[in-house]
Fold:
Amino acid sequence: MWGAADMIPTRDEWHNALKARHGAELQRRLDRAAVAVCGLGGLGSNIAVALTRAGVGRLILIDFDRVDITNLHRQQYKITQLGKYKTEALSENLNEIAPYTARETHTVRIDESNAAELLKGADIICEAFDNAECKAMLTNLVLEKLPDKYLVAASGMAGLGSPNAIRTRRITDRFYLSGDGVSDVADDIGLVAPRVMLCAAHQAQTVIRIIAGQFN
Amino acid sequence: MVKINGNEVNAAGITLTDYLAGAGYDEKRVAVELNGDIVPKARYKETILNDGDSVEVVSFVGGG
Structure:
């Protein structure tokens, strides 16, 4: 058993543990997959942790912002990381979970001028922004300009509503949408960790199902 | 009739821009699927809804 921090398993040992869980075929698909996470807040940081644990081979992590004290109630950062760029802080945390996952980070604001270039290496893109107009911008951009990629977006996960209202729908062949569709952060008490994590988990699981070839 | 977000709506003959405005949608927050494909934003004004079309308007809310 591995017990001490200085006894980190080798890449092969780590990979064999994943294969033992997932089977060789699914793990081969996960190894080859490249997933972009756009926004590293409540959705994106939790998506990235889930995909890293699941053994997705390559993550492209994009966010311009720094870790703030108001993020800690729902995002995968630590109090010791306040003020750091989220790309840097999340990389540190993911590296402690799975040091052998390939990661690319971009500390920039995604907009219509740079999105295609930032996302070109991804097979699947997670929209994980906070702002509704940014969500719509990225969704339209990916579906119009990057038609060979899959998009997993989210809308509606604020407040104290039932966890059972969070669901994932396939809108087009390449566009999946998670959330309850209506719970706006502006209307309620804001975001509560488990419900945001639940929506992030929907997105991450949808990503893995797409990688596995399960599209419906 | 046009099927919009699962409901039969009397919207045949009008443009997507006019439908969205009339139904109270904020165009900056939506993505629109028409018969399985995404409608590019630049084409909302020239896209006329037809009898039998199936439309899904995804209207994003904030939070993440």
